[in-house]
Structure formats: structure tokens, C-alpha cells
Fold this sequence. Notes:
The complex is a heterodimer. In chain A, 81% of the residues lie in helices and 0% in strands. Chain A contains four helices and no strands. The N and C termini of chain A lie far apart (132 Å). By secondary structure, chain B is mainly β. Chain B is 13% helix and 49% strand. The A-B interface holds A 43, 46-47, 49-51, 53-54, 59-60, 63, 66-67, 70, 73-74, 119-120, 122-124, 126-127, 130-131, 133-134, 137-138, 141-142 and B 3, 6-7, 10-11, 13-14, 17-18, 20-22, 24-25, 70-71, 73, 102-106, 135, 137, 140.
Amino acid sequence: MSPSVLWRCRISITLIVLVISTTPISSHGATGGQLETAANSVNSAFSSVYYAEQNGGDVSALVVKLNTAIFLIQKAQAENATDPDAATADLSNATTIAQMVSLNSSSVSTSGSIARQLRLYESLGTVAAALGLAALAYLKGDRVYRRLWLYVYRNHVVKKNDE
Amino acid sequence: MNKQIATTILASITILVIIAALAPLISVREPRYSELGILGPTRTTSGYPTIVPVNQSFLLYGFVKNHEGHVEDYQLLVKVGNQTTLVSNSTYANAPVISTYWQILSENETWTFPMNLSLNHAGNDTRIIFELWSYDVPSSSYEYTGLWDQIWLNVTA
């Protein structure tokens, strides 16, 4: 091993030791980092919900869950000074809920897209059927009407008025 | 029946059916906006406090409604300012935040919530400024909606 490589190794090890020694040991209570993680998870989940709604998905159930996560974050903020363990648990639950919402929003988005596509096909089908029926009525209407008239009056006997 | 009249009736019915079938696909552009209101302790636009003792909590209600046409992530920031604090529809107040309220609202949903506030500095003409912010998905950050409200208080020692 060359002296320059050895020197670089020594500097790297020193830097790693410095970083490890200066990193604070996580306290038992809820930290700002946990709060930020929970809030970021909610915002990220909100983005997924937003796009799911744009794709035509019904996101009302997801919104309710996200508001539960927000409630837990606010509860954690309020109780952090008095009950840090409960605050940590609340933030953890809020993060889990937000992550579940993110996961579920993709299926809501897909079902929304499919429903939207079905509505489109339904409308186009109705238009095509209306145009077809109208064309048929225009071209064959007279003939159909006459045949129908003859069928309805097939047993009708024409009598003279003075008979 | 005259052939011409029959054709006209047929064409009219066909056009009506086509319009009815295509109507759900046409999106109507309605004005999009949010609503912000601050209500007194009785949930009405009256009975607002004007004098409050320092460090003593007082109750107000916030009112937010979403007409943006899609789900919205709102934050209501409560700030403490004074006579010189600048705030407008385009500029948010550069003042300390004393409380934040956060909720996600679906289209046409209303959010009415209690705000227990207290001030720790005595002074005349203290302004409690309420600003509505919403989460902007493309930029992944909260943006000032331009909606704000305020109440003036004399905080007694």
C-alpha cells in the first residue's frame, strides 16, 4: 500500500470517528426529527391522495385517515413535554398511517382511472347507439311503421257506414 | 305525419340524447377559492375579546371552507403582530407564530375548530393575525393563500 493511500485511509477513519462522536444519542422522548418525519410522511401521502383524486379516485376515506395522522401529530406536540413516550408512540402511529395512505392511494388512483374510462366508453356507446337508431329510423322508419300498422290491424274488417 | 316534421323530431331527440350522454364528460369551470373566517367564543361573528389579561387563554373559532375543486391541505398560522406589522393578500406577516392548526379538507368541506390562545406580552394594539396557507403539491411546500384575518387586542398585565 502506498503512503498516500495510507494517509487517505487515516483521514477517512478520523472523519468517521469524529462524525460518530458528534452525533447526539437519541433521547427517549419525541424529537424534532421524528416530528419532521411524521409531518413529511403526511405531506407526501397528501400528494399521493391529490394525484389519486385528479385521476378520478374517491379519496374521502383516505382524507379521514390523513386527518387522524394530523391529529396524532398535534397531540404528540402537545404532550411531548409531559409524556414524551406517548408523544413518540403517537408520531410513530401518525407516520404509519400516512405511509398506509400513500400505499392505498395508488389503488384508489387506478380504480378512479378505470371508472373514468368506463364512463367515457359508456357515453361514447350511448352516442353511437343514438346515432345508429336515428339513422335506422330515418332510413327504415316508414317501412317499419307500415308493417307495424298492418300487423296491428290484421284482423280489422272494414265495414260500410250504412251496413 | 309530414315526413319533414318527423325528420325534425327525430333529429331533435337524437341531439338531446347525445347532449345528455356527453354532459358528464364536460367539466364546468366554476370559480375556485377558499374561505377563511374567525368567529367569536359563541361561534358567531360577535363577542370578540378586546381586552385580555396576559397569559390568560381566550377562545376563538376558526372557519375554513374548501371550494378549490380538489382536496386541500390547509394550515392556519396564528401570529402576533403590532400596528407596524405588514400583511396583505400578497404578503404574509413577518411575525412570530404562536399557534398552528392543520387539516386536510375535501372539496366543499367545512372546518370549524376552537382556538385557545394566550399572549405572554402586555401591550396595547396587539394584533392577532390569522393566515391561511395551503400545501402546493408541485413545489412540495406550503404557500400563502392570500387569505388573512386579524383581531386587535389590549393585553393587560
